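Today's session is about reading a structure prediction critically. Students often jump straight to the picture, but the first step is always the sequence itself: look for stretches that repeat, for charged clusters, for runs of hydrophobic residues. Only then move on to the predicted structure, which in these notes is written as discrete structure tokens rather than atom positions. Here is the chain we will use throughout the hour.
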Amino acid sequence: MAVTYDLVKAVTAQLYDASLRKIPEDTKQALARAGLTERSDTARKTIRVMLESAAAAERQHHFVCSDAGVPVYFVQVGTRVQFEGDFKRAIVDGFADLVRTIQPPLLQHVTNPLTLERGYHGKDMPIVTFDLLDGADYVDITCSPKALGSGRWAALEIFSFPTLDVIEKYILDVVLRAGSQHCPPVVVGVGIGGTFDYAAKIAKEAVLRPFGQRHPEPIVAGMEERLLRAVNATGFGPMGTGGDTTAMAVHINYASGHGFTPVAVCFNCWINRRARARIFNSGEVVYSE
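Below is the predicted structure for this chain, in token form.
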């Protein structure tokens, strides 16, 4: 058997739809924990409203936020996968079908960067990146739409032989520039090293890591812990109302490279949108977050 065009088209459309209507379970739990530990009464009330809003959206099958963003897919292709039909075309066509049928309708967020014309379709849309999985007989697809809160405040700078102090200071500078405009509490993703494009890629992937999973290398895990404390010490708090919870997590990935070291920082807003599925050669589809 094979992974078919029709199956990829249906699954990728469903992932985008699902990511708009429900926040992940680990995110609900992180918000609930923050509501118990927050010292600010206003922050606790804000978190409670956020959780109630998310529950209502899920119950009524509505969008958690009207800013649906643009569809972004991370695809890992097993080297034992067999395809039947055009994979990338299936994702494009699935999004086109969803635009025509989804309720409530999507706003026109897809924007031509040269003319600022807005619509539902455009060059290289949806945005898809591919990696390989040695020996796997499935395709792993994660949809993580990027909207204003999860895209606008990302930043990257290239340093020459930076120390950890320099890297951490830059990450905090990006956090301070963003303030509360990315709808906190956020997930902070960081990519260090590699090349200009690769640092940004691994920063975006870091955002997708489930809560509670620290980096396996102690030096990186230590950075994650220090930075989370420092970000929450800024006091921006939930939706900028003040408090102890500006971030739910800081996740860092790194890659070796040349002496020059790019550092990329990105965010996911409090909704932390992501939906995931594995499509096996057999036609079985397994959904997760």
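Discussion point for the tutorial: Residues 212 and 249 are 9 Å apart (CA to CA).
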